[in-house]
Amino acid sequence: MAVFSVAERVGFTDILYTFSLDNFRYLWDPLYGRVFLRTLEMALFGTVATLLVGFPMAYYLARYAKRKTLLLLLIVVPFWTSFLIRTYSWLIILDEDFPVFRALRAIGIVPDDFRILYTTKAIYIGVVYNYLPLMVLPLYAALERIDWSLVEAAQDLGDSPLRAFRRITLPLALPGVLAGSLLVFIPLTGEYIIPVILGGNTTFYAGNLIAQQFLEARDWPLGSALAMVVIGALTIALLIYARLLGRQEQYG
Questions:
Q1: How many structural domains comprise the chain?
Q2: How far is CA 37 from CA 31, 41, 230, in A?
Q3: Across 44-58, average pLDDT
Q4: Which residues face 16 on adjacent strands?
Q5: Using an 8 Å Cβ cutoff, are 205 and 38 in contact?
Q6: Is 219 within a domain?
Q7: Domain coverage including residue 154
């Protein structure tokens, strides 16, 4: 990939192996900047949304659930089917003719022109659904190791439940938060299937833009340069994660 990123395309399909940074200079075009910002927005939204939804689930599983094995199995079950099939299932659910939407239109809750499929909202719904287990599992693993008597002791000494959560639970769960955020954020920066299926391939993100350069435009050097930029950004994210985790272990 790195070799192709500094090569040049000759004609329609031929590649001239040389050392040229022209492909990276093209990426300074505001068009590509908007694509990268849109991709970052999707990755950040997916990370934050899965964290907000997944943390209460993991907290309940770790502290209160009686049938943990069964509930964990239900969380893992989606991994038993293809990512593609799970995404296509939302293509059916979010269709405007789905029975739920027909019923909501009939009773006047949603307008007649209500439409969510092939929009950014549909993409975000697919992102949260497909990536939620990747957030819940590391959160659960971190919360499961917590000695809950520490929280009870803090509350006995005068802390409110919220203050005890902020001072005890959240710092101890931070490694799980960081690991889950990384597991969601990294693949989302190159997500291809969800925008194509649920977004109708009408809104470009880094993943489907790279795919277009390879499969349609046949501009492998430019596609490789795009991919190298994504890889570079992920490397920075990994270094930040390693630094934060190292600091947590040092002072934890």
A1: 1
A2: 10, 6, 12
A3: 95
A4: 8
A5: yes
A6: yes
A7: 21-251
5 in a structural domain? no
**Average model confidence (pLDDT) for the chain?**
88
- Residues facing 15 on adjacent strands: 9
> Measured in whole angstroms, how far is the alpha carbon of residue 133 from the centre of its chain?
11
Q: Is the pLDDT of residue 250 over 70?
A: no
Kindly tell me if the per-residue pLDDT of 252 is higher than 70.
no
Distance CA 43, CA 80 (A): 24
Amino acid in the structure at residue 82: S
CATH number of residue 102's parent domain: 1.10.3720.10
> CB under 8 Å to 4, separation ≥6 — which residues?
15, 220, 221, 223, 224
Euclidean distance between CA atoms 197 and 193, whole angstroms: 6
- Do the domain assignments include residue 243? yes
> Is 47 within the bounds of a domain?
yes
Element (H, E) at 213: helix 206-215
What letter would DSSP give residue 8? Answer: E
Q: Decide if pLDDT at 18 tops 60.
A: yes
Q: What is the pLDDT of residues 64-104, one digit of tens each?
A: 888 888 998 888 888 888 899 999 999 999 988 889 888 88
Question: Which residues have C-beta within 8 Å of that of residue 168, sequence separation ≥ 6?
Answer: 146, 150, 151, 154
